[in-house]
Amino acid sequence: MRSIKTVYKIGQGPSSSHTVGPFRAAKWFKEQHPGADAFEVTLFGSLAFTGEGHGTEKAIRRILPDAAVRFDLETQDLPHPNTMLFRAFRGGELLGERRIFSIGGGSIRWEGGIHHEEDREIYPQKTFGEMLYYCLQEGISLKEFIYRTEGPSLTPYLSTVWAAMKEAVERGLATEGELPGGLHNLRVAKEIYHSRSYNESSEVTMNRQIAAYAYAVSEENAAEGVVVTAPTCGSCGVLPALLYYMQFNKGFPENEILDALAVAGLIGNVIRTNASISGAECGCQAEIGSASSMAAAALATLYGLSAKHTEYAAEIAMEHSLGLTCDPVGGLVQIPCIERNTVGAMRAVDAVNLSRFLTGTRKISFDDVVATMYRTGKDMNEKYRETSHGGLAEIYRTPV
Ligand code: SF4
């Protein structure tokens, strides 16, 4: 399994697979063809169907401003639902071409087995069960296992990631106005944050604050702001919302927040390795479900729960996200995405609370639920996998 650093990528929203991945692909392809005087990019599958609303063309044009960008809505039987074909020319002659796949979370794969540093496998284990076994044998916690495997470079990396997450929360809380894209959605994070009623219970205060933080980050993402994939841009509000709440409302120190981020990264990494974190491949269960699982593991770590309790919390959060479809209205990462980040964060809190009571009786392992999510995603009708052809995207019509 690769480093957990590859789970957390700092980049521009609104979609890790539709903006961060294509941006990185364009950058790599351009570097490979320094002599080219023209470029052509064809987008297939989900990138063609929702690429406009998700800002794919804009992301590519940041690197290749004059490229001819085509949207191929016809071709089927693609090797990956997020396929791109890059072509470089000089004097009208084809210099080179490459199919590149945006595989989720901002990661890309090249057709033809080209490998990148980020592909390097550093964990000998692949499943959560193998990692848990190792931890129990060695008598170490999950976070000790992660730091032992990743080495000393992990902490400064997580520190940078956490700084970017906090900035996204704070920018989102300070900004008002309409989100781009034409749905006329207003930003509401600031309003939620300040909407305390005089007789609000402590439980409602907690929910309101977590909701405000989740909205803040997701609205930043929808406005093409800088966010951190956790594990994707569409689901980038879930984990920071809980961690921000725990640091600034509950007083947890920075070093414990980084430990929680590490364990959440491990959970996201296991899901990415053994299933998928791409809405185009497995629906929203792969994005918000994964984010919720990661956040549950982070919270369990902050509460000092055992590795088994942490596993159970992550498993509950994913199990009850199974079947969640991806149906973004207008191809924008706004409805249902923004609100869903808040619901994902709340589900993570519930999952951790439930995991405290029931560990001894559970039957389903985290690896089982990850495998189930993947199969469910593959069985899901294509219109519910980030094509904007089904669900809310089909039913909802913008009022004129
Ligand atoms: S519905 Fe979920 S998977 Fe689809 S774009 Fe929105 S957040 Fe991503």
Describe the structure.
With 400 residues, this protein is an alpha+beta fold. It has two domains: 11-110, D-3-phosphoglycerate dehydrogenase, domain 3 (60s Ribosomal Protein L30, Chain: A), CATH 3.30.1330.90; 133-395, no CATH class. The chain has helices at residues 16-32, 45-54, 56-61, 128-138, 142-150, 154-174, 189-193, 202-222, 238-248, 254-274, 279-282, 288-302, 307-319, 337-358, 366-379, 392-395, and strands at residues 10-12, 38-44, 68-72, 83-90, 93-104, 107-110, 226-228. α8 (202-222) crosses α14. The protein starts with 9 loop residues before the first strand and ends in a 5-residue tail after the last helix. The structure holds iron/sulfur cluster. The site of iron/sulfur cluster has 13 residues, from α14.
- Count the helices. How many? 16
Please tell me the total number of domains.
2
* H/E series: EHEHHEEEEHHHHHEHHHHHHHH
The portion of residues forming beta strands comes to: 5-15%
Largest sheet: 5 strands, mixed
List the helices and strands and how they pair.
Layout: E1 10-12, H1 16-32, E2 38-44, H2 45-54, H3 56-61, E3 68-72, E4 83-90, E5 93-104, E6 107-110, H4 128-138, H5 142-150, H6 154-174, H7 189-193, H8 202-222, E7 226-228, H9 238-248, H10 254-274, H11 279-282, H12 288-302, H13 307-319, H14 337-358, H15 366-379, H16 392-395
Parallel strand pairs: 2-3
Antiparallel strand pairs: 1-7, 2-4, 4-5, 5-6
Helix pairs in contact: 5-10, 6-8, 6-10, 8-9, 8-14, 9-10, 9-12, 9-14, 10-12, 12-13, 12-14, 13-14, 13-15
Bound molecules: iron/sulfur cluster (SF4).
The site of iron/sulfur cluster has 13 residues, from helix 14.
